[in-house]
TrEMBL record:
SMART domains: HTH_ARAC (SM00342). This is AraC family transcriptional regulator. Gene3D superfamilies: Homeodomain-like, Jelly Rolls. Residues 185-283 form the HTH araC/xylS-type domain. InterPro entries: AraC-bd, Homeodomain-like_sf, HTH-like, HTH_AraC, RmlC-like_jellyroll. It comes from Acidipila rosea. It comes from the Bacteria. One of its GO terms (molecular function) is DNA-binding transcription factor activity. Keywords: DNA-binding, Transcription, Transcription regulation.
Length: 294
């Protein structure tokens, strides 16, 4: 997927910390040379990192390496609230942590953490990581000097927590050519907007002024998945929310998210979630059987 290059302003600080608050997070596939630490405070939807797509929810914490394409795409706007989707975002470069600091022997855990983040890292919602999340929020109110020291402390705590999981596959390579960013963003928005109904790839190709073969090759080469696989993952994500948040039957949910065949819905659900729709709903009814994972 060709991602849009993003210039990250640093103002008077060596790195950037800000709170992103919007009615919804729109699909915006992009990359930048800074590392990025993102903590979701409110809202839910899908997180795309390289060739990985997963759900996110409040408490979601991710560290992204430099030039790794990514985006967060929220579900429906939260009751029209202007801040229905919120995240604290920290963007920094390795040199911002201090010249030569990462070369010190005692900083090896942080150095290794940043190296692993080239694939994107997701951190479990363990108690210690919840404390780290509070420290990340605290960055917003610190002076520049204390902010820098606290960021180093946060990275060291994450490295020592040993609770991270890689997101993008080892096969994924950051795509930094800017030529196709508008095209691929438009394709994904078309697929997202129409995921709950039968999608005609012929109509998508006409909208994009491309023949179907070229369209399919571009999408497969860029994302590591076909458009059908991408749409199914979006549908399964929506279905997961409905299974957790409503009393709709699995059949009703299958039809609502865009599957015309219930057997295919169950098959695709198990492929993505590694369990049946019924089993997932039961897991959430019995928290003892549920391990928090997007």
């Amino acid at each position: 997927m060709k991602a849009q290059f993003e210039v990250v302003p640093t103002a008077n600080s060596s790195f950037l910390v800000f709170r992103r608050a919007e009615p919804s997070f729109a699909f915006n596939w992009h990359y930048h040379p800074e590392f990025e630490l993102t903590l979701i405070e409110a809202g839910a939807g899908q997180r795309l990192v390289g060739d990985c797509i997963q759900d996110y929810e409040p408490g979601d914490l991710v560290l992204l390496g430099a030039n790794l394409p990514h985006t967060w795409k929220s579900d429906n706007p939260s009751s029209g609230r202007l801040d229905g989707n919120r995240a604290v975002v920290v963007q920094f470069r390795a040199e911002h942590l201090g010249k030569g600091l990462l070369e010190l022997g005692e900083m090896e855990p942080v150095r290794m953490l940043l190296e692993r983040s080239s694939r994107g890292l997701w951190f479990e919602k363990a108690r210690r990581n919840m404390e780290i999340a509070d420290e990340i929020r605290g960055l917003l109110s610190l002076s520049p000097a204390r902010r820098t020291l606290t960021l180093i402390s946060i990275l060291l705590s994450l490295a020592e927590s040993k609770s991270d999981e890689a997101l993008a596959s080892g096969r994924h390579q950051p795509l930094c050519s800017p030529g196709e960013e508008k095209r691929i963003n438009k394709i994904c928005r078309l697929l997202d907007r129409n995921s709950s109904r039968k999608i005609s790839y012929e109509s998508v190709s006409k909208e994009m002024h491309m023949d179907i073969s070229s369209l399919c090759r571009l999408f497969k080469r860029s994302t590591g998945r076909t458009m059908t696989e991408y749409v199914n993952e979006i549908r399964i994500s929506h279905a997961t929310r409905l299974l957790i948040d409503t009393d709709m039957s699995a059949l009703e949910i299958a039809m609502a998210v865009g599957f015309s065949n219930y057997s295919n819905f169950c098959r695709q659900f198990k492929k993505v979630r590694f369990c049946s729709p019924r089993s997932l709903r039961q897991m959430f009814k019995d928290p003892a059987n549920y391990r928090s994972r997007p």
